[in-house]
Design brief:
The chain has a single domain, classed as Uracil-DNA glycosylase-like domain (Uracil-DNA Glycosylase, subunit E), CATH 3.40.470.10. The protein is globular and about 45 Å long. A 3-stranded mixed β-sheet has the order 1-3-2. A hairpin with a 2-residue loop joins strand 2 and strand 3. It contains 5 helices and 3 strands; from the N terminus they run αβααββαα. By secondary structure, the protein is an alpha+beta fold.
Length: about 100
Amino acid sequence: MPTLHETTICIPYLLKQIEIIDPKILILLGATSLKYMAGNTYRITRDRGKWIPVNGRLAIPVFHPAALLRNPDLKRPTWEDYKEVVQKYRELVDANHKSDYV
């Protein structure tokens, strides 16, 4: 987990990159990114898979890939979360987006 000092230094750069790239969707990987991007009131186990507003964009928190290695039972809910991402992408960006899996 990054220290408060590291976060204080890096977050402005991250926010500027998001502004430049202008994504329609943000995927927040794990509790740390959820905390720093959405706030301390969110919890990864409670809020994963739910669309939340973050800096004027839609964001979806998902379990961090390392959590899936530690607990394989998290793989199914994570797969469901990523299917939600594809559906939202189709809604906001490209209705004709094709995926063999969703």
